[in-house]
Write a structure and sequence with these properties.
203 residues, mainly beta, 8-stranded antiparallel β-barrel, two-stranded antiparallel ribbon, 42% strand
Length: 203
């Protein structure tokens, strides 16, 4: 049974490990997702806060330890600054994903067989240490949720993850977009408009 537990939860980390590195020539022991400013309809969700960089890194664990050791990685934001509110002393991180259980259950005892749901799979409490008069850096351990992939009756059912999203909020603000500071993504910088030819963005 312990071996089956490792296989089931290993499916979680197989997705997180293999998915983002398919363009690389060599494998890696972690998945590293860059963090970008969380954007809402009219601009940054929490415009009073900015940061220099950050990432979420999922460690590739050795089976079958995952069910007893729930720490799967780290989250961090570096150079967090504020244009008004005090610098944060802590932040909240959350990872959500669509969790899909296979419809095949060899012993027909898993209640989640064939289910498909979006849920929180891990959280992090990021503690901040001020690095200077106007910025702080925040880091926390990413912990798999206690109920996630922890049903012994489902350890023989394959699990797939899609739409993985990592987010960082102001302390106590999880779920409130106005307090969402960062989300996994990348900043894409466009080229300067060619105004000699009347390109987009020119007067």
């Amino acid at each position: 049974m312990a071996k089956l537990c490792g296989v089931a939860v290993g499916a979680l980390l197989l997705f997180l490990w293999a998915g983002p590195v398919t363009a690389q020539e060599r494998g890696t022991s972690t998945v590293r997702l860059a963090m970008a400013t969380a954007m809402c309809t009219t601009g940054p969700c929490a415009p009073a806060f900015n940061f220099r960089g950050g990432f979420t890194a999922f460690k590739k664990p050795r089976q079958p330890k995952l069910l007893t050791r729930r720490e799967i990685g780290v989250m961090r934001l570096d150079g967090v600054s504020s244009s008004g509110p005090p610098l944060p002393t802590s932040l909240d991180g959350v990872v959500t994903a669509r969790v899909v259980f296979s419809s095949t259950d060899p012993d027909s005892d898993c209640g989640d067989t064939g289910s498909d749901s979006v849920q929180t799979i891990a959280t992090s409490s990021l503690k901040c240490r001020q690095k200077g008069p106007s910025s702080t850096s925040c880091r926390g351990t990413l912990v798999l949720g206690g109920a996630v992939f922890n049903d012994p009756d489902c350890t023989d059912v394959r699990v797939f993850l899609t739409d993985v999203v990592t987010e960082v909020y102001e302390d106590g603000g999880v779920g409130d977009d106005s307090k969402k500071i960062a989300q996994n993504g990348a900043l894409m910088t466009g080229k300067t408009p060619d105004c000699n030819s009347g390109g987009p963005g020119c007067p």
